[in-house]
Amino acid sequence: MKVINLKLKENSYNIYLGNNTVDKIPSYLHHSNIGNFCIIITNRKVFCLHKDKIKKITQNIPHKIIEVTDGERCKSKEWVFKIINELIKVDDIEKKVFIICVGGGTIGDLGGFVASIYKRGIPYIQVPTTLLGCVDASIGGKTAINLKEAKNIVGTFYQPKSVFVDLRFLDTLPFRELKQGFAEVIKYAVIKDRALFNFLEANYQRVKRLENKFISSVIEKCIRIKAQIVERDEKEKRGIRTILNFGHTLGHALEASLGYQKKLTHGEAVALGMVCASFISFSLGLCSKKEKERIEKLIELYSLPTKLSFSPQRVLRSLSLDKKFIGGIRIVLLERIGKTKVCKDVSLDLIKKSLRIIKKLG
Ligand code: GLY
C-alpha cells in the first residue's frame, strides 16, 4: 500500500492507495480518534456491488448506512437536510459522529458538504469507487451541491481526515465510467507531467485494461500532482489550482448546452474541451502543431471523443453565462505538454473557431 501525505498544516491527511485498502479502515478507525458512530453515505448501486467491502468497513463500529439517489440528483438541498435529520437522530452526548462517503464524486461532494456544515464541521473520510473519484474528486476538499440554477453553486472547501483509494472498486466499473477518469488522467499529464504523458501513450492498452502495476502507477502520479497543487493553493486563491480546469471551461459549456444529458458525460466533455484548448494554444502560437496533435491522438487512444454533434450557438450562450466571461474569456492554455499558461482574454472569434474543430459534420 502506498501512503501519500497531503500537507496542509493542521488539515494534513493521508491518501492510502492500493488493493483492498478499505480493509485497513477498521484498524484506522480504532487508532484514530475520529469518532465512535459512523454514517456511511452511499447509493443503492454501489451498496449492491460492494456490500462485502462496506460490511468490512463497519464491522467494529456502530453505524447507519444512508443510500442516496444515484448520480448528480443526490447533490440537492433535499438530500442535505435528509442526511442532517439522520445525524440529529443518532447524535447524543455520548456519540462523536463522523461520515464516510463511499461512492463516486457526487457522493463525495454531498457527504463532504454535509460534514462541513453540520455543527460547523464534523470529520469525514472519502472512499472513492470511480476512477474519476480516485484521481480527482475525492482529493482536495472541494465539496458542493447543485441548485436548479447552476451546478456546484453552493459549496465549501473542507478537507477529509483521510482518503482510501481501493483499486479493487475499479473492477466493476463500466467502460464509459472508466473513460471519465481517463479524461482527468490525461488532463494531469498534459498540465504537469510530460513523463506521465509518454507513459500513457506507450502503455495505453495496459492502462485501459486496468493492469494492476500500470493503473496503480498512473493513479499514484495523478494523486501526487493533485496533492502538490492543493498544498500550494488549497482555496484556489493563488491561480495555481486553476490549472486543474484545463479543458473544463469549454467542457462545462458543452455539458450545460446539452442540459447535462447522458449523451455526453463530464469526462467526454472535458476531452472535447481539451481538444479546443489545445487548438487555441496552437493558434496563439503557444504550443506546436505536433504537441496539439499528440494530445488529440492520446484522447482518441483512450476511446474519448474529439468530435460531437452540438449547437455552437448554445455553447456560446452557456459560455456567456460563465463567470469567467467578460468580453473575452479566461482559459487554461498550454505552452507545451507539461506546462500551462492561464490566458485572460481569449477572443470570442478564436473560441468559435475551436468549436468548429470539434463539430461533427452531417
Ligand atoms: N476538480 C478540480 C479541483 O479540485 O480543483
Residues in helices, as a percent range: 40-55%
CATH class of the largest domain: Mainly Alpha
Kindly provide the radius of gyration, computed on alpha-carbon positions and rounded to a whole number of angstroms: 20 Å
Q: What small molecules does the structure contain?
A: glycine
Strand content: 15-25%
List the total number of helices.
Answer: 15
Number of domains: 2
Main β-sheet, spatial strand arrangement: 1-2-9-6-5-3-4
Q: How does CATH name the architecture of the largest domain?
A: Up-down Bundle
Structural class: alpha/beta
Backbone shape: globular
Intertermini distance: 50 Å
By DSSP, the count of extended strands is 12
List SSEs in N-to-C order.
Answer: EEHEHHEHEHEHEEEHHHHHHHHEEEH
User: What's the pLDDT, averaged over the residues?
Assistant: 95
What can be said about this structure in brief?
With 362 residues, the chain is α/β, with parallel strands linked by helices. It contains 15 helices and 12 strands.
Topology, element by element:
Elements lengths: L1 E5 L6 E6 L6 H7 L5 E7 H6 L1 H7 L5 E6 L8 H14 L6 E7 L1 H13 L6 E5 L2 H7 L4 E6 L2 E8 L4 E5 L8 H18 L1 H9 L1 H5 L3 H21 L15 H10 L8 H18 L5 H13 L10 H10 L3 E2 L1 E9 L2 E8 L1 H11 L4
Parallel strand pairs: 2-9, 3-4, 3-5, 5-6, 6-9
Antiparallel strand pairs: 1-2, 7-8, 10-11, 11-12
Helix pairs in contact: 4-5, 5-6, 6-7, 6-10, 7-8, 7-10, 7-12, 11-12, 11-14, 12-13, 12-15
List keywords for this structure.
single chain, 362 residues, alpha/beta, Rossmann fold, 2 domains, seven-stranded mixed sheet, 15 helices
